[in-house]
Specification:
The protein has about 525 residues and is an alpha/beta fold. Helices cover about 40% and strands about 15% of the residues. Strand 12 and strand 13 form a beta hairpin. It is globular.
Length: about 525
Amino acid sequence: MASASVYAFSFLQFIFLILLATLSAVLPATSEKGFSIEEATVDDLQLAFKRNHLSSRKLVEFYLKRIQSLNPVLRGVLEVNPDALNQADKADEERKTKPQGPFSALHGIPILLKDSIATKDKLNTTAGSYALLGSVVPRDAGVVTRLRKAGAIILGKATLSEWSHYRSNNAPSGWNARGGQGKNPYTGNDPCGSSSGSAISVATNMVTVSLGTETDGSILCPSDSNSVVGIKPTVGLTSRAGVVPISPRQDTVGPICRTVSDAAHVLETIAGIDINDKVTIEASKYVPKGGYAQFLRKDGLRGKRLGVVRSFFDFGNDTFLQETFKLHMRTLRKSYAILVDNLEIDNINEINSDQSEDIAMEIEFKLALNAYLKDLVASPVRSLADVIAFNKKHSKVEKIDEYGQDLMVEAQKTSGIGKQLNGALLNMTRLCKNGFEKLMRRNKLDAVVTPFSSFSSILAIGGYPGVLVPAGYEKGAPFGICFGGLKGSEPKLIEIAYSFEQATMIRKPPSLFA
């Protein structure tokens, strides 16, 4: 529960904050016509476009200047797109030519992509590793194709934990060889999760919205720690084609934004069938007609049955967290949600001690990564073995092997699909049915509510969705609240999360940027 930690400021953190204060003092906050860009939602920006208070070019210029000023300290952005301004000009011209549209919610809106999401353009796709620098992808990732079709501007690539945190257990969250160590803008500490740069960047208004990926916690945890909203979709709801993989069984692509409404707009854009990811065909049955924005209802908590699993609310002697979440429970009730309290997942101890996820992930990572690398048009590496050899060869010269590569080495030892993998998969299916699914159905729940991103592993092993919303700050360190449900329950989760967000309005930017 990294987000629940209280961070004691060191001298280095003090210097970090001084640097950010100096940088933030010189950053512009408004367009030429007085429209405030900071903290603006997608809907705010679209209205500003319509009223000619802002152009996509001015918006991109604002973000480029902000990245130039803040990113040397925060390290949330790995690359900016040299064609971003051209894309902005195209969007402006399209609105000028067709003033009445129709345009999508993301038309002319800049977005950052986690650097594991492929783009067939001048940007690299490296998962933060020098081993993939200069590689050539065969096509845009499926989600990028949808973003381009919607008229979104690909602003650049966000930093991440290298190889989506599947290189070494010794590497800290937010570190990659190409970009260095990402920083939580609220504390100067751990930004959490592999989609760290996506969260850092939207939290500090270096971009409007972003995409991350999650295998286990990599959207929910950075959202939790950086006071932003993250949606971890049902596996297969969004395409993983063209995404550097860990586990096709658990990998999912989702939005990291400042508001639930922005996240819903992004999810609406990227969800759906992609012939290059067969799992999306089956999962497409979960995509609602009319999209996800229709579920942005202030009364979305009314009548919802929310399960409270008390084992996740053990805060020890932390009175502040105890009182904060008591207040949130009262807010849920006042919004006419039905709280089903004091629940237990029957097999929670077995789930917590089981190693099936780790076993399966090791085997799947090698198989999936080898397939991804072989599909590249050009690449310095063509297999996991090549990656390991590359890191070893260049570690002393380029100092890129500071934290080792133990996870990769163990994955390389695996021998593919067999009894071990099949046994692990069957075991996880059993744990899910006898655990989370049984809890949900027995109590007729719409969602489970838990603090922080502590429920991420339960959601991960079954491919279930979750939405995380800012819930407070403990001595400056953000933390969130998570709503998780069964497969395809995104409409309900968005209703619940949006209603909670609107009832509380807790999120605030890092104090130096307020």
